[in-house]
Fold these 3 entries.
Entry 1:
Amino acid sequence: MLQLTFTRGLSEDLSSEVKVMKKVKGREAEEKEQAEQQLLKQDLYVESLTKIVEKLTEQIDVYESQVKGQAEDTRAFRLLQTEVSVTQTAVALTF
C-alpha cells in the first residue's frame, strides 16, 4: 500500500512536470513566432527605407544634372554678354 501511494505521488509529480514542460514549450514556440513576425516587420521596413533612399538618390542625380546644365547656360550667357558688350564698345568708338 505504501508503495502504491508512493508510485501515485511520483506519477502525479511527473504528470505535473510534463504539463509544465508543455507550457514552457508552448511559450517558447509563441515567443519564437513573435520574434519571427518582428523580424519580418523589420525586413519590410528596411526594404521600404532602401526604396526611399534609391528614389532620393535618383532625385539628387537629376538635380545635380540640372545644376550642371544651368551652370553651362550661365557661362554661355555671360560669354555672350561679354561679346555684346565688346561689340557695343566697338560700335560706340567708331561713331
Entry 2:
Amino acid sequence: MCLYMVRPMAKRCVELSEELVKRIESVLDKAGFKSVEEFIEFVVSEALEAVAGPGEASMSKEDEEKVKERLRALGYI
C-alpha cells in the first residue's frame, strides 16, 4: 500500500505492508484517528519529537490535549 503524506509544500509516498496497514486500521476508532494517513503522521511526528525535540513551532494547548487524549486511548498514559 502506498500512502501519500500531504504537506503544504510537498507530498511523499510511503509504502507499508498490508499486514501493518490492517493492524493500523483495526485500532483507528479506538485511537481516535480518521485515517491510516492521520495515524502515521501522528506517530512519526511523535517519534521525531522524542528523538530530535520540538519542531519549529511549538504545540498549542489544544493540540497538546488532543495528543494526550489519543495517548490515553492507546493506553500509553
Entry 3:
Amino acid sequence: MRSPRPAAATPGNGDRARIVEALGPTPVEIDDIIRHTGLSASEVHLILLELDLAGQLCRHGANLVSLTSVE
C-alpha cells in the first residue's frame, strides 16, 4: 500500500501580496520574481496562474510577465 503524498502547500494572501508587489507595468522575468520573493517556483507559478485567470496578468513571452494596466 502506498503512503499518501503530502499535500502541496497552498500559497497564502501574504505570498500573493509579495508577488503583486514584485510585479508592475514593466515585464519582469519569472525567475527574478522567484529570487526576489524567496517563494518556490511552484508557488510563484500557481499565483501567476491565478492572476492570469483573474485577468490581472499579462504574459509577454520569453518568461516575462507584468500586471495588466487598469484603466
